[in-house]
Amino acid sequence: MIRAIVSLALTVVLLTACAAPEEAAAPPPAPVLTPVAPIAPPPAPVVVEAPPPAPARAPDVVAIMPAMPPAAVVVDAGPPVPPAKYPLPAPLATTQTNMPIDAVRVAAAIIDRLSGGSGLAAGVVFSDDAGAKVDASRAALPGLDWRDSKLLQYAPVEYTPRVAPQGRVVAGQLEFADTLDRRATILFSVEYSVADEPISVLNIEIAPIFALNPAIELFVVDAADVPDIAGALRASHADLLKLALDKSVRWRAAPPEGPRDWLVFAFLMERVSPSSRLRLGVTEQPNGAAMFDATTRVLDDAGWRVAVIPGRFSLYNAGVWARAEFAPGVEADPDARQLRTIGLFPLSVTTARADAR
Question: Which domains, from first to last, does the chain contain?
Answer without folding.
Answer: 2-30+84-209 (3.10.450), 48-78+212-356 (no CATH)
